[in-house]
C-alpha cells in the first residue's frame, strides 16, 4: 500500500463513511473512493462491506489497521515537523516548560530577555515532561524546561540551577529560630497537602519520610506545586514543594529546607540534533540566571 492509500484507509476506519473521510482529509468524495478502490485492487481483495452508504471493515481490514497504525502516526509526525520548519521563516523561539517553572521563573526571565530582544517572536507553552520530549523530537519546540531529566537518547539535559525540596507553612507557624533549621519527617504537623502518586519529587518525599519511620497522610492531594502553594498561603495546611515554587512565594507563608536534603535540578532540555540559535541560547541564559537569583532570594 502507498502512503496515500494508508492515509485514506485510516480515515475511513475512523469515521466509517466516504463522506466523513473526505471531510477529515479535505479532499473530494470521488477522490476518496478512487484511492480506496486502487488500494483494494492492489491488495487483491475488498477491505470493507458496503451497506447503505456505510463501510464496515472486514477482518482483513482490522488486521491491516493494526499493522499500519505506527506508520500512519509517523507520517503525521513528519507532516507536523515539515509544517513547523516551514513556519520558521522569521526568527522565532519556541519554549515549552512544566507549569512549575512557567509560573515561578519564566515571567522575570522573559522580561529581562525581552529588553535585549524586543522584536524576536517567542512562543510559550506548558506541558508535562513526557509531552515535552515529543515536542522537542518533532521539532515543535526549540528548548524546554523541566525538573526532570527524561534520560532520552535524543534529548540533551543541561542542569542550569539547583536547590532542595522545601517545606512551606502558613505565616506564623514557626519561630524565627525554627525557620533557620531544616524540617525532617517528624516535623510535619497538621493538615498535609501532597502531590499525586505519579509525581517524581512527591515519590522521593514519601520515600524519605518512610526511611525516617514516618508514613505521611495527605488529606488533600493536588497535581501542581502552585496549587499546593496557594492552599498553604490560604492557611489550608503544610506542604513540601520544589525550591522554585517555594522561593517565589509571597510573605503569607514561611519556608524551611527538608532534611535530609532532596536535591532538585532545573534542566534545560534540547533536541540532540538541533543546536540552539544565538537568541534561544540567550533566553536560556536569562532563565538560568533568574532561577539562581530566585533561589538566592529564597534563602534570605
Count the E strands: 12
Looking at CATH, which topology of the largest domain would you report?
D-Maltodextrin-Binding Protein, domain 2
- Record the strand order, biggest sheet: 4-3-5-12-6
Tally of structural domains? 3
Number of helices: 12
Domain HTH lysR-type: 1-58
Pfam families: HTH_1, LysR_substrate
Family: Belongs to the LysR transcriptional regulatory family.
InterPro entries: LysR_HTH_N (IPR000847), LysR_subst-bd (IPR005119), WH-like_DNA-bd_sf (IPR036388), WH_DNA-bd_sf (IPR036390)
Write the layout of secondary structure elements.
Elements: H1 3-15, H2 18-25, H3 29-43, E1 48-51, E2 54-57, H4 59-86, E3 92-97, H5 99-104, H6 106-116, E4 121-126, H7 129-137, E5 143-146, E6 155-164, E7 166-170, H8 176-179, E8 192-195, H9 200-211, E9 220-222, H10 225-233, E10 238-241, H11 243-247, E11 253-257, E12 263-271, H12 278-299
Parallel strand pairs: 3-4, 3-5, 8-9, 8-10
Antiparallel strand pairs: 1-2, 5-12, 6-12, 7-10, 7-11
Helix pairs in contact: 1-2, 1-3, 1-4, 2-3, 6-12
Organism: Massilia polaris
GO biological process, one term: positive regulation of gene expression
Pfam family, one: LysR_substrate
How would you sum up this structure, described in words?
The protein contains 12 helices and 12 strands. Strand 8, helix 9 and strand 9 form a beta-alpha-beta unit. The chain has helices at residues 3-15, 18-25, 29-43, 59-86, 99-104, 106-116, 129-137, 176-179, 200-211, 225-233, 243-247, 278-299; strands at residues 48-51, 54-57, 92-97, 121-126, 143-146, 155-164, 166-170, 192-195, 220-222, 238-241, 253-257, 263-271. By secondary structure, it is of the alpha/beta class. The chain folds into 3 domains: 3-85, Arc Repressor Mutant, subunit A (Orthogonal Bundle); 92-156 and 265-299, 3-Layer(aba) Sandwich (D-Maltodextrin-Binding Protein, domain 2), CATH 3.40.190.10; 166-261, 3-Layer(aba) Sandwich (D-Maltodextrin-Binding Protein, domain 2). The model has no long low-confidence stretch (mean pLDDT 89). The strands form 3 sheets. It has a 5-stranded mixed sheet, sandwiched between helices. Strands 9-8-10-7-11 form a 5-stranded mixed sheet. The protein has a two-stranded antiparallel ribbon with strand order 1-2.
